[in-house]
């Protein structure tokens, strides 16, 4: 298999390149000019048989350079995305990059298969009852503007891929990882709450399951999906099983990484009240109080759900690292 990876210098991209190279794939990576490509040097040295090729291309500058990058490619893993930097940066870094890739794919008479790395955040959890299961067929978020820029961008990205891949007969599968973590990235997600800030963590998620995906398990799942999925537009959530509760994650994080971190648990009724008050305070302060909570965001992100993937189980995927060993390796030894 010859794979093209966008976002290969990122957290998940690096793990994916390792995985693909270890499984014998030959690799080509889109690297934007100015990117820190040390990780690619390491992969090159560890896996010379992967014959890693680099294509210099800032994807948001358009599709130029992508035609040659797609030559001879069997599967494209599209990971490049802006994860932070404000609404405009997130939108542009996610949507312009995707549009450029899709333009280049649509021009090919026989386009390669595409694995789009989307996000679990695009699912409509606000409409679900507490304790409901969130699976691959959970409907998409109908009101992204009430969530956050990242959700909005990833939702538009998934819709754009579904629409254009169907129109141009580009074989597609959408993989939706949960919260990625692993060496170097273990700070508790906002699904657990806010912090650490000045030695405190505001725990909003209580004992809700935290939909984690260890980065190595996620990389293995993506490689597995590329080999086993039908590429008929199906979606696969990627989350480790079983998932720890938010409190459990936080306590382990404190024990291994941040001794002395003070945890302030916010009971759900108090959280719901704060979520009602914050939009009012945000408006009154003319935006100086950040809109971290709202009733809709609370319903979406801080209620208990059971996350899984029937599709991934049907494809026969088994995570290489058990959830417990993954948590132990990431959290129990000091690393940050
Ligand atoms: N992190 C999570 O918890 C999570 C959860 C679910 C889904 N995901 C998805 O997984 C994917 C990877 O996430 P990550 O955490 O690995 O992100 P990351 O570490 O921030 O890496 C993002 C990658 O995208 C590249 N990129 C950004 N803009 C680009 C552009 N204009 N042209 C070319 N490359 C560009 C970056 O290149 P540089 O090295 O030059 O910056 C980097 O390689 C994203 O699609 C994200 O939405 C992440």
TrEMBL record:
<dbReference type="InterPro" id="IPR001509">
    <property type="entry name" value="Epimerase_deHydtase"/>
</dbReference>
<dbReference type="Pfam" id="PF01370">
    <property type="entry name" value="Epimerase"/>
</dbReference>
<dbReference type="InterPro" id="IPR051783">
    <property type="entry name" value="NAD(P)-dependent_oxidoreduct"/>
</dbReference>
<dbReference type="InterPro" id="IPR036291">
    <property type="entry name" value="NAD(P)-bd_dom_sf"/>
</dbReference>
<protein>
    <submittedName>
        <fullName>NAD-dependent epimerase/dehydratase family protein</fullName>
    </submittedName>
</protein>
<feature type="domain" description="NAD-dependent epimerase/dehydratase">
    <location>
        <begin position="3"/>
        <end position="238"/>
    </location>
</feature>
């Amino acid at each position: 298999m010859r794979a093209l990876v966008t976002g290969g210098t990122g957290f998940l991209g690096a793990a994916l390149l390792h995985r693909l190279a270890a499984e014998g794939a030959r690799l080509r990576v889109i690297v934007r000019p100015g990117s820190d490509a040390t990780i690619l040097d390491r992969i090159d040295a560890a896996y010379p048989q992967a014959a890693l090729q680099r294509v210099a291309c800032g994807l948001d500058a358009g599709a130029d350079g992508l035609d040659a990058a797609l030559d001879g490619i069997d599967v494209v893993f599209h990971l490049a995305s802006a994860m932070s930097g404000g609404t405009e940066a997130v939108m542009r870094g996610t949507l312009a990059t995707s549009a450029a890739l899709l333009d280049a794919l649509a021009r090919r008479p026989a386009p390669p298969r595409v694995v789009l790395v989307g996000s679990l955040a695009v699912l409509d959890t606000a409409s679900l009852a507490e304790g409901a299961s969130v699976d691959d067929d959970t409907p998409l978020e109908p009101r992204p503007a009430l969530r956050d820029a990242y959700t909005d961008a990833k939702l538009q990205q998934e819709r754009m891929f579904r629409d254009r891949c169907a129109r141009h007969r580009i074989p597609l599968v959408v993989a939706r990882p949960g919260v990625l973590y692993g060496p170097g990235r273990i700070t508790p997600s906002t699904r657990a709450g806010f912090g650490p800030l000045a030695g405190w963590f505001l725990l909003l998620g209580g004992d809700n399951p935290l939909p984690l995906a260890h980065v190595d398990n996620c990389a293995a799942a993506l490689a597995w999906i590329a080999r086993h999925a039908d590429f008929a537009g199906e979606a696969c959530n990627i989350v480790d099983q079983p998932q720890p509760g938010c409190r459990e994650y936080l306590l382990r994080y404190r024990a291994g990484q941040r001794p002395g971190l003070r945890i302030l648990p916010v009971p759900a009724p108090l959280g719901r009240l704060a979520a009602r008050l914050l939009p009012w305070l945000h408006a009154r302060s003319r935006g100086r109080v950040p809109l971290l909570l709202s009733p809709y965001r609370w319903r979406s992100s801080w209620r208990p759900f059971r996350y899984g993937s029937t599709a991934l189980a049907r494809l026969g995927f088994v995570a290489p690292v058990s959830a417990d060993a993954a948590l132990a390796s990431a959290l129990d030894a000091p690393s940050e």
